[in-house]
């Protein structure tokens, strides 16, 4: 447990644990050079430093490089610097006191029927993802837990580039979280065809949009063995009939949840459709 430790030549003190995942622990840190009356806080992601030459080392360096490249966008959480100490890598990030988007949605951060807030926040998520794509970075793990929220619940930021790739097409199947994976990423078309990582990110955006407007995910896993996904394949209006969504939202979701990734809606067109819809 590193709580109470100083890093970055004493500039940062780790004061609490914010969360932990498979690839690291995130601490709350206070900037010891900031005013005691108005202290500056950071989120610090701690990784155990991998051995040089190992696959994990390459993955860690790729996460840092990809995040740094996208960090300037206003809807990507800022990665300020990386501190190497002893056995650890510390990624110094902006701290979002509003927590993550999963918690925000679960606690009713978007009142049912607040179309303006859905539109405002989802457009910000789209903008963050598109900025990454324009940099040649594809996130592959877009989910509410990897989106951070400011204190007032008015701004959101894409985070955690641990599974990101610079490849527009990939044969790494099963990358991401099952609820948000496209069918082609899961690998239902077999191991022969590489999938579009860009279109895979769009699919994940559709799952998030469904949760934002209805309070439910559309299915657990986009495979034929999933009862809800199978029902959707058999009836494209399945979500419209079973969830509290508008016909306009249904049209958008159908354009996202097409099993043919080459026909899936692009992010610029998705943004246009979101801006045009009257109610979700």
From TrEMBL:
One of its GO terms (molecular function) is protein serine/threonine kinase activity. The keyword ATP-binding applies. Residues 12-280 form the Protein kinase domain. One of its GO terms (biological process) is intracellular signal transduction. Keywords: ATP-binding, Kinase, Nucleotide-binding, Serine/threonine-protein kinase, Transferase. PROSITE patterns: PROTEIN_KINASE_ATP, PROTEIN_KINASE_DOM, PROTEIN_KINASE_ST. One of its GO terms (cellular component) is cytoplasm. It comes from the Eukaryota. ATP binds at residue 45. PANTHER family: MAP/MICROTUBULE AFFINITY-REGULATING KINASE, MATERNAL EMBRYONIC LEUCINE ZIPPER KINASE. Belongs to the protein kinase superfamily. This is Kinase-like protein.
